[in-house]
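S2.1 Query sequence (Gamma-glutamyl-gamma-aminobutyrate hydrolase family protein)
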Amino acid sequence: MAKVIVGITGNEKELPAMSGLKYVTVARDLADGVKKAGGLPIVIPMGNPSLAKDYVAMVDKLILSGGQHVDPRFYGEDRTIDSDDYLLARDEFEIALIKEAIRQQKPIFAVCRGMQLLNVALGGSLRQEVSGHWQKDLRGTSHGLKVKPHSRVSQLFGQGSQINSFHHQSIKQLAPGLVATAHDPRDGTIEAFESQGALALLGIQWHPEFLCQNCDQNRLLFDYLVHQL
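Output structure tokens follow.
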């Protein structure tokens, strides 16, 4: 049986800093999570939006990975924070991938920034700055989950399941057609959403790739992505 091909959006980083050398990057743990679940991960480098149709046609499912802030122009706002952590070309390319994946009826799994971008691409908005959602250590967890019963997320995570937290922005207005399925019980931040109806969209605010080696729930999330979403 052919493996499920999962496209993962790549970021672009200058390494070393100020060197002028740019690399396509993605967290290895994200690709490893797909491989361990039996899928075949393919990193999609940032490119011209005109390439989105062909890239999406190559894959069975799409992962939107983490990274920079989403430019607020895409939800009709000006920047209200002092930050240079934006990459407009990436926003434009990944929005094109989202629209094409929806057109081709390919499932989308969105992580952290990816979740925020998916919400914006579908007509939602973001809080440009939130506090108390960036933990100090890369490994480990930060807080629990309040999970909506009978949701996709509830098939894998129970009430109080512990997750990590690495984000400075969060969902403000949820896009039409999406339903919030997990929240941070501390302040109500949306930690997961999913689509209604036949179209398979699942977004989570935490980084399961940093937890799946030592957490069965997050490991099974990759199994769900590859075999069921």
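Residues 5-227 form a domain with the Rossmann fold fold (CATH 3.40.50.880). The helical segments are 28-36, 52-58, 88-103, 113-121, 216-227.
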